[in-house]
Amino acid sequence: MWKNENMGHGPRHGHREHGHDCHGRRHFYTKQERIEMLEEYKTWLDKEKQGVEERIEEIKKSL
């Protein structure tokens, strides 16, 4: 799903040690791959937002 493109957020945030990618993942991606990763990230964010909104409504109902 996620490739390490140093986006900093999302389900598979890359981990680096000593300036090297410790998982042996690629560093350079095609434009199409970047578009696909960003679309997946946007979907993840949309679902996260929906979950947050649902949780807010649950909390409001319990007040």
Strand content: 5-15%
In the predicted model, the low-confidence regions spanning at least 5 consecutive residues are none
Q: What is the CA-CA span between the terminal residues?
A: 39 Å
- Secondary structure: number of strands: 2
Structure explained in plain terms:
It is a single chain. The longest helix has 32 residues, at 31-62. The chain has a two-stranded antiparallel sheet with strand order 1-2. The protein is elongated. It has one domain (16-62). 51% of the residues lie in helices and 6% in strands. It has one helix at residues 31-62; strands spanning 16-17, 20-21. The model has no long low-confidence stretch (mean pLDDT 81). The chain is mainly α. Strand 1 (16-17) and strand 2 (20-21) form a beta hairpin.
